[in-house]
Design a protein that fits this description.
It is a single chain. With 349 residues, the protein is an alpha/beta fold. It has one domain: TIM Barrel. The protein is built from 17 helices and nine strands. The longest helix has 24 residues. The model has no long low-confidence stretch (mean pLDDT 96).
Length: 349
């Protein structure tokens, strides 16, 4: 196998296992509604997916936080639900209510989903990745992403967001063969989607399993770990050298099993994960990313400073990337983000 060159960008160096004197920093949802320049672009789009599928706009909103804050990584501006949309399950975003889909709950509806034309429907997303490859600063890494099969499946089966996941769990528990067919389709589609992002310029991948914590242990193994393992294996086999970050939000103690079972290079910690435990149990195996409470970023001031300092003190002796425990909240003052970045950047070994 050809030896991969050592990375030079700080974000990629951290993903390769280096402990850096100043940890790289980026934030989930760093492009978004808290920025006035984003809201200006958003007002021009017919809907949220129109924004995601228009390369001019998607490229611009990806670049906006880089101009303000100089993050060490940019993440493609898109949405995890472009995958079901491209499979033939139309997705609508209703202002103030979130996504809406026609639920997929039986074999006939699952069979109606198709990979025919899948890549063509996502061509605008790939065009955005290509543009970002040349538009971002040379020292900045480009992250591609997708939702994990379990999390995307919950939206497809529920017809939108959920708190209890009654329909998704009922299908998974009561008709596991049918649910497995849906998961298998999502693994195939998502794997192709991620590999194509890499081919257009993505240098790392993050897989968001936002609802991983909704499942008990045995179901977590089947519907979270195994599909993610298959995605990681595909990327490692077909595009060696591309690091993968997993984010099994809410997984608690199952974070360790996730790390051991999936083969990810890094794991993003949600706000609830105890840092001493993560440093002892996870950091010897993978790079840690996280995990500031997004509400501290809204609060700002000394509370924010203390939160940043606590995480840096706990994690930065090993491979570590500073981030939030989930995405930036809409009410976040932009000046607080600048304060966070400045605080992280002041740190030296």
């Amino acid at each position: 196998m050809t030896q991969q060159p050592s990375p030079t960008k700080s974000f990629l160096r951290a993903l390769a296992g280096e402990s850096l004197p100043t940890p790289p920093c980026w934030l989930m949802r760093q492009a978004g509604r808290y920025l006035p320049e984003y809201r200006e672009i958003r007002s021009k789009a017919k809907g949220f997916l129109d924004l995601c599928y228009t390369p001019d706009w998607a490229t611009e909103v990806t670049l906006q936080p880089l101009r303000r804050y100089g993050f060490d990584a940019a993440i493609l501006f898109s949405d995890i639900l472009v995958v079901p949309d491209a499979l033939g399950q139309p997705v609508r975003f209703q202002e103030g209510e979130g996504p809406a889909l026609t639920p997929v709950r039986d074999d006939r509806q699952i069979a109606a989903l198709t990979l025919d034309g899948f890549q063509d429907r996502l061509r605008p997303v790939f065009e955005t990745v290509s543009r970002l490859k040349t538009a971002i600063p040379t020292e900045t890494a480009l992250i591609g992403f997708s939702g994990a099969p379990w999390t995307v499946a919950t939206y497809m089966v529920e017809g939108g967001g959920s708190k209890e996941f009654l329909a998704a769990k009922a299908l998974a528990y009561g008709q596991p063969a049918s649910f497995q067919r849906l998961i298998d389709l999502l693994v195939e589609a998502t794997g192709d989607y991620l590999v194509t992002q890499i081919d257009h310029g993505a240098e790392a991948i993050q897989i968001f399993d936002s609802w991983a914590g909704a499942l008990p242990e045995d179901a977590f193994d089947r519907w979270v770990i195994e599909p993610t393992r298959r995605l990681v294996e595909k990327i490692k086999t077909e595009r060696p050298g591309i690091p993968v970050i997993g984010f099994p939000r809410g997984a608690g103690a199952l974070y360790k099993r996730f790390v051991e079972g999936t083969g990810v290079d890094a794991v993003s910690l949600d706000t609830s994960v105890p840092l001493d435990w993560a440093v002892a149990e996870l950091q010897p195996r993978v790079t840690l990313q996280g995990n500031l409470d997004p509400v501290l970023l809204v609060t700002g001031g000394e509370a924010l400073d203390r939160g940043v300092d606590r995480i840096l003190a706990a994690c930065r002796q090993g491979p570590f990337i500073f981030n939030l425990g989930h995405g930036i909240l809409q009410t976040t003052p932009p000046d607080n983000v600048a304060r966070l970045v400045d605080r992280v950047r002041r740190v030296r070994g």
